[in-house]
Amino acid sequence: MDGYRYEEENVACLFSSDEGTGSVIPTQAQSLVEGSGAVMVSELKPVPDVDYLQELLAIQQQGPRAIGFFGTRNMGFMHQELIEILSYALVITKNHIFTSGASGTNAAVIRGALRAEKPELLTVILPQSLKKQPPESQELLSKVKTVIEKPYNDHLPLLEASRLCNRDIISHVQQVICFAFHDSKLLMETCQEAKSLRKIVTLFYLD
Question: GO terms for molecular function, please (predicted)?
Fold first, then answer.
């Protein structure tokens, strides 16, 4: 999982050693293996958000869920492969995946879900009508059993239609998984909105 080392480094700043005091803050792996009791409470620093790994583990701890996938179109092949594997794993464990129809993240999610051969556990919600999608997306979407179009949004700019589409997806799910850059404004808004609705949000930064 070297491709996600950047995220581990980002999160690691919350669990690193305190050079000024010499206190040692547990890593994510140590917390899971040794338990939080392995370190004095006085040595722990407050963490501003739920641990990403715990969020992912919560999926299986509480049984199958409806999970919304969001993410950037601008993504390398390796990241797409990892997302495809994650989507596949979530579907074969009976989680219902909701996503949209764009290239990049969405396409990788769809490919992974299709590999799981459980078509009833994949729902694709488009921001506009199918005809507004690029040809390569239309070809992939032709393999999806449940595609929800929104032709009444065809007159809107894609950004606004996508914002409405993301809200719709959030309303159907219990957990959100997002792959974004720090300056991905719409995706950051989507994650914040999901958090305000008390959804579990797992956000992976690609930068």
Answer: methyltransferase activity
